[in-house]
Amino acid sequence: MDQVRQVFTVDLLERYAAKGRGAITCMAAGNDVIVLGTSKGWIIRHDFGVGDSYDIDLSVGRTGEQSIHRAFVDPGGSHCIATVVGNGGADTYYTHAKWSKPRVLSKLKGLVVNTVAWNRQQITEASTREVILGTDNGQLHEIAVDEKDKREKYMKFLFELAELPEAFMGLQMETASTSNGTRYYVMAVTPTRMYSFTGIGSLDTVFASYLERAVHFMELPGEIPNSELHFFIKQRRAIHFAWLSGAGIYHGGLNFGAQHSSSDGDENFVENKALLNYTKLCEGPEAKPSSLAVSEFHFLVLIGNKVKVLNRISEQIIEELQFDLTSESASRGIIGLCSDASAGLFYAYDQSSIFQVSVNDEGRDMWKVYLDMKEYAAALSNCRDPLQRDQVYLMQAEAAFSTKDFLRAASFFAKINYILSFEEITLKFISANEQDALRTFLLRKLDNLSKDDKCQITMISTWATELYLDKVNRLLLEDDTASENRNSEYQSIIKEFRAFLSDCKDVLDEATTMRLLESYGRVDELVYFASLKEQYDIVVHHYIQQGEAKKALEVLQKPSVPIDLQYKFAPDLIMLDAYETVESWMATKNLNPRKLIPAMMRYSSEPHAKNETHEVIKYLEFCVHRLLNEDPGVHNLLLCLYAKQEDDSALLRFLQCKFGKGRASGPEFFYDPKYALRLCLKEKRMRACVHIYSMMSMHEEAVALALQVDPELAMAEADKVEDDEDLRKKLWLMVAKHIEDILPFFPDFALIDDFKEAICSSLEDYNKQIELLKQEMNDATHGADNIRNDISALAQRYALIDRDEECGVLIFLMF
């Protein structure tokens, strides 16, 4: 393959890494630290991070040939465990990066340690915390070592395979914090089985629980030289695993939060399990790998002196790695592979050399791998640029289109931005006569466009509007009762269309959209859109045309509606529903009643039932009495309406009310008295005219008019003058003259009772004389001449002014 495009590359890291201490037998790596074990019992530590290395002889004090069986280093590169085997049996040592001498783990004497599981979540440079050791005789032990103690803190036996005793060849551990404590997940492999253990508490309590329950395991047939178990670690968490078994590479995802119970009651934290058959390696049916390394997306499989790189997802070989071996190493070839999860590197080693295998953006083509497998979601998550995403969307769209799933195809086509033009896509749906799918495409395209694409957004929105309108009309043609059925497709599309108008109100061209709605006869939607665009005059006009005054008034009461529309539509609304209109006016703040006068006058000019509540009068009274309105026009109109009523009591109360009372230098009334006088004269409201004359200090006119209505009213008006004695006498003379003029019209015999109240009302100082006179008048009936003589005589008794009859009457009446 082209070297530039290779995902994995091989470089010689160290040619003579064993430093003459024998042949390399094993290797481990962590955090740029490589630990080698040799055939002569030496541990050689290379720290490539600081450029340092040193070696430790574990064969000291042991007789015969000694060889390092396995060496292990923690992910941080601080802690090292190694087992040496020889004629004297097996011993396991612990050494720290800061130590110059190893410490033998005496309790493990005689046990051959094949595998180690570190507690990646809790291990520190100073302490190993819990470490699980898997031995050749099928046992699991737990140890912990603190660097400062120079020896193990403890060692505990955890578990032993009893049913099928086999050597533990691979071991991994994960922990997770829960509300009940620490949960442990342990996975271990033998040549034929993969075991899983889980539980909450300490490691010894977790494994002790398996005395009473079965151990969960997976068994696969076949034999393999070296069974291995690997976790791929990302951000200190295991993501997936791979077991190099006799049957193939058994692998899957890891979800340590899963609570799915397996058949034997264990929580099974393995997902998406699969078995990669070795036939995929193309090395013949008998060829089996001797070592394995796992990256995020690939398996590195060692077969002979070659490392084949297989894509974990597609199970296809993508590369084959070659190594520059020395002649001394060629005979045995590459011994094994290991990985450094912290540094993201892989290593291969032979008897003397270390080779570094570097990863060069291994996920760059994974989108295509997933796409070829039609795993679209995974493909999209691995895309690096818009062009790659477009290809995924295109394949999804074409697949849906080919199966006539046009709506689904439309959603995917809408996400394509580069490799297919807008016109090409729309033509596909037009050619297939799929209007609904085309509309769906346009709507989804709107969702995916940037706000800066204003012209395209407006164009697509307008087209979608027309498609909605066309759909609505087609539904009505198919079923003319659709508009009445609430559960019909018609009602559904209308609801959807309105939601669309609401969402796109700011991008649709107002005039164009209204013309479209009008041309299709969609009056309700036109009104709805006008409301969205705050074209309230259109909305209110529509409701008035429909006779729905209450809805129109609700629109006008919205805070965003200009107050001028209240005045504009007031004449129509009050004629349509006077009660609701007036109620709305009274509930509306900052309304100027003066501007409503034309509407109120129009309403008042119409005939009304005798007992009907006059809504305009109600509103004007509200303005005058509640709002304390001082506008002369408002007061004049209210006075006018009062004057036209048959009963003049409201008019008289209004005239007598002093609206400006208590206000500094304010008038007592706000209506125009001259207008009021003309109006009352026209409407023949004489008592009101008398009041207005009096209010205007036109007392002679007031008395003169009152004499035509009611002598008592005339006397009351004459009595109001107190500060002008001459005028007062004159007014009373007018009253007396009027009485003299009407006396001839009385019959010869009349009851004096008809006059007693008028005559006696002001004579408090002379109560006895008047009471005597009243008694006399009650005893007998006199003619008109006798009455005149009695009144004149009484006036003369008090010797007031002249003693002629007229003055006597006047003075008497004044009292």
UniProtKB/TrEMBL annotation:
InterPro entries xrefs: Clathrin_H-chain/VPS_repeat (IPR000547), Pep3/Vps18_beta-prop (IPR007810)
Superkingdom: Eukaryota
PROSITE patterns: CHCR
Statement: the UniProt record of this protein carries the keyword Transport: no
Signal peptide: none
Metal-binding listed as a keyword: yes
Keywords (A to Z) from UniProt: Coiled coil, Metal-binding, Zinc, Zinc-finger
GO cellular component assignments: endomembrane system
GO biological process, one term: vesicle-mediated transport
Positions of the Pep3/Vps18 beta-propeller domain: 20-359
GO molecular function list: zinc ion binding
Coiled coil: 756-790
Pfam families: Pep3_Vps18 (PF05131)
Ranges occupied by CHCR repeats: 587-748
Protein's recorded name: Vacuolar protein sorting-associated protein 18-like
Organism annotation: Vitis vinifera (Grape)
Taxonomic lineage from the root: Eukaryota, Viridiplantae, Streptophyta, Embryophyta, Tracheophyta
